[in-house]
Write a structure and sequence with these properties.
The protein is of the alpha+beta class and 323 residues long. Helices cover 25% and strands 33% of the residues. It has a 6-stranded antiparallel sheet with strand order 9-10-13-14-11-12, with helices on one face. The longest helix is centred in the middle third of the chain and has 31 residues. GO terms for molecular function: peptidyl-prolyl cis-trans isomerase activity. InterPro entries: NPL (IPR041232), Nucleoplasmin_core_dom_sf (IPR036824), PPIase_dom_sf (IPR046357), PPIase_FKBP_dom (IPR001179). Its EC number is 5.2.1.8. It holds the Pfam family NPL.
């Protein structure tokens, strides 16, 4: 189910996706001035820091780089705002993500966006003309600053409301859901030298705050997962689940950072590099791992962006959500 949106410097795009949405491309409008650089930025909710964050998505240049492939996944109900720095218009395209087991989800999407059909049939409904956009770009004043401030405040209000909703849901979860991991953790912290039951040797090897005893897993294909921060609960990430992670990627040979952010994907479905699929499988909620991926399970002989060919990669990944 296709989706599209338009962003200009005077008219940011603020939204909450009614369904999971994947944005796959950004293109520059035809009236952009040749040689001008147009910056697309996004303000989104940071689930870890619990505050809005603004990040640059891409830079488009009229006459040279006018199209950019994206892979931004917005969760259902997640508040975001796209803005443009520069006089050009940026067109965003993507599609709604429909789960394999959601037979009537497509019908729900059609019903929810039926208003667009009504607007297109209404002769009085007209989108902004290119001339109007150009005129508005030239008239930059304090009104624009007030508009930007109101948009930022709107995002803040939406984020706080969602955080409050998440906290309320957490309070409703009975404490009896995760008693076993908590008890095992207390035993290892109180008496590291005490003999522990044979059923849980791994807990004895990884007491909190002891880096040299951090558990290391050698996975298939040569990928290595090192647990930096233990997770919570007993549910683990498994193939076919939709997971949301926060990550930071660096080159293994020199530690150079090449990417960071938050995104969602289906585990084990080939939507990410092989080493990421293998390294994330089995993670607990809020667990943080350092995943070292050999080139064969990364990008292989391909050069991708700032990543040279045949590069081993290191990711620090935190599990934020799984369903």
């Amino acid at each position: 189910m296709l989706w599209s949106g338009t962003v200009t410097e005077s008219t940011p795009l603020t939204m909450e996706a009614q369904f999971d949405l994947r944005i796959t491309g950004a293109s520059l409008g035809e009236k952009a001035k040749k040689g001008e650089r147009v910056f697309l930025v996004v303000t989104h909710e940071d689930f870890v820091a619990e505050e809005p964050r603004t990040a640059q998505v891409c830079v488009l240049t009229a006459g040279s780089i006018e199209n950019q492939y994206l892979d931004l996944v917005l969760d259902e109900g997640e508040p975001v705002s796209f803005a443009v720095k520069g006089s050009g218009t940026v067109h965003l395209t993507g599609y709604f993500v429909i789960d394999e087991d959601g037979s009537d989800q497509a019908d729900q999407i059609m019903d929810s966006i039926g208003m667009f059909e009504d607007e297109s049939d209404d002769e009085s409904f007209e989108g902004p003309s290119i001339e109007a956009i150009d005129d508005s770009d030239e008239d930059m004043s304090s009104d624009e600053e007030a508009n930007e401030s109101s948009i930022t405040q709107s995002i803040l209000d939406q984020v706080r409301a969602k955080q409050s909703s998440v906290e309320n849901k957490k309070r409703k979860v009975p404490e009896a859901t995760t008693p076993s991991p908590a008890k095992k953790k207390q035993k290892t912290e109180q008496s590291p030298k005490q003999e522990t039951p044979k059923k849980s040797p791994k807990k004895q090897e990884s007491p909190k705050g002891t880096p040299q005893q951090t558990r290391v897993q050698k996975l298939r294909g040569g990928t290595v997962a090192e647990i930096l921060t233990p997770g919570q609960g007993s549910a683990t990430a498994s193939k076919g689940q939709k997971v949301t992670v926060k990550y930071e990627g660096r080159l293994a040979k020199n530690g150079k950072k090449f990417d960071a952010g938050k995104f969602s994907f289906k585990l084990g479905k080939g939507e990410v590099i092989k080493g990421m699929d293998v390294g994330i499988e089995g993670m607990l909620m809020n667990e943080k791992r350092k995943i070292t991926i050999p080139a064969a399970q990364g990008y292989g002989n391909q050069k991708v962006g700032d990543i040279p060919a045949k590069s081993d990669l290191v990711f620090e990944v935190t599990m934020l959500r799984m369903k």
